């Protein structure tokens, strides 16, 4: 099965959303706090509305799951976030905390799950001038719209690092690891690695796909945080699992690596 048409659709929608979010980022906007103590703006909601409208028009038989407006009927089963329906999973602005502070590291995530597999992913970060995308069996690709950089899409490939002592690790924050009682094992991982940086959110995983870092992991994530990321990492030759080793974006947490390091990282994080 080919997902080229679905990828083309997601890319076209991303073009529209980028224009909306960039314009919104340059305007005055109010910031609200949701029940989970995370921020949201009218721009988040407008971006998700736009994506939902375009997907509903183009794929009326597909379900949609979004961060701001939840799941359409039939999108999820009660356990594990899986179903046998085709469903699009949307995070209109991943990195809203960055967005509201004027930090350019935020992105729109559009992913497609078919059955129990993430098969299409688009991550578009217009303030960075970057976009990454993949479809199952078609490789992972990146485009840079920054002056002086080549404009043609380039194929992504994970790194070839094989030893943790030579690895670069990216994460988001320490607090989540502490809250899950995993701060000790995570610090063990950082001590074993050569370099550790908190690039955070989508960017950590895109750096894995590009071979710029070797490992990215987070202890608590929602489905909309991960679906678009997983096929980009795996089509670039890496692995994307939960911290328990379950393949795909369904485990509520994430470990992405170049593949060669995956078992060693899992062993370190589950040592306790």
Summarize the structure.
The chain has 272 residues and is an alpha+beta fold. It is 33% helix and 25% strand.
Walk me through the structure.
It is a single chain. With 272 residues, the chain is an alpha+beta fold. It folds into 2 domains: 4-155, Fructose-1,6-Bisphosphatase, subunit A, domain 1 (Fructose-1,6-Bisphosphatase, Chain A, domain 1), CATH 3.30.540.10; 164-269, D-Maltodextrin-Binding Protein, domain 2, CATH 3.40.190. 33% of the residues lie in helices and 25% in strands. It contains 9 helices and 15 strands. Strands 4-3-5-6-7-8-9-10 form an 8-stranded mixed beta sheet, sandwiched between helices. A 5-stranded mixed beta sheet has the order 12-11-13-15-14, with helices on both faces. The protein has a two-stranded antiparallel ribbon with strand order 1-2. Strand 8 (130-135) and strand 9 form a beta hairpin. Helix 1 (4-25) runs antiparallel to helix 2 (42-58) and helix 6 (201-210) packs parallel to helix 8. It starts with a helix and ends with a helix.
CATH homologous group name of the largest domain: Fructose-1,6-Bisphosphatase, subunit A, domain 1
> Which range best describes the helical content: under 10%, 10-25%, 25-40%, 40-55%, 55-70% or over 70%?
25-40%
- What does the largest sheet look like? 8 strands, mixed
**Annotation field: number of helices:** 9
Averaged pLDDT, please? 94
Distance from first to last alpha carbon: 41 Å
Proportion of β residues? 15-25%
Radius of gyration (CA) equals: 18 Å
Q: Order of SSEs, N→C?
A: HEEHEEEHEEEEEEHHEHEHHEEH
CATH class of the largest domain: Alpha Beta
Structural class: alpha+beta
CATH topology of the largest domain: Fructose-1,6-Bisphosphatase, Chain A, domain 1
What coarse outline follows from CA principal-axis ratios? globular
Number of domains: 2
DSSP, total strands: 15
